[in-house]
Amino acid sequence: MAGVLLERLTVGHEEALLGFERENRAYFAGFVSDRGDAYFAEFGAQLRDRLAEQDAGVCHFHVVVDDMGNLIGRVNLVDVEDGVAELGYRIGERAAGKGVATAAVREVCRLAADVYGLSELTAVAHLDNPASRTVLERNRFTFVENITLVGRPGVRYRRRLTTAAT
Contact, 153 vs 125, CB < 8 A? Predict the structure, then answer.
């Protein structure tokens, strides 16, 4: 896949983001817990809550768009505190396996250091999701510890960040 662009989440993404989540619901449920029907029924209110968190600086939410402007994923930095945030991402089924996740995580790491002033990111992945673990490892995340993640074996990772100037 040629180009991947991260856009900071805005209310203008609501329709495309809801469509993306609906289209990929079953696909994502194969990797992570399903968000449930209430997530979709209350999507607008939840989006406004997320945007309030973003405005407060405790989270940084992004959508991933392709060369044609189609929303193909999400990359989020949550629970920002003392220069550290947790990374989460999901790439839609049609864009999976094309380097999109690796490129999107690379770009959010750059933004985290250069724009948001963060010094470290953490991330978790299930052991039975080798693609997600590979994305993290390709982006210089290192193993911290084995964990139990939603009742399944997982791994916690960390990446220390440096700005482009350092």
Answer: no
CB 64 within 8 A of CB 8: no
List 124's β-bridge partners, or say none.
Answer: 156
Domain ranges of the chain: 5-160
pTM, full prediction: 0.91
Q: In what order do the strands lie in the sheet with 142-149?
A: 5-8, 60-65, 71-81, 84-91, 120-126, 152-160, 142-149
Q: Please name the residue that has the structure tokens 């600086």.
A: 57
Query: H/E/C letters for each residue in 77-123?
Result: EEEEECCEEEEEEEECHHHCCCCHHHHHHHHHHHHHHHCCCCCEEEE
Is the domain defined by 5-160 classed in CATH 3.40.630.30?
yes
Q: Which residues pair with 89 in a beta bridge?
A: 75
In tens, the pLDDT along 33-50 reads 778 788 889 999 999 999
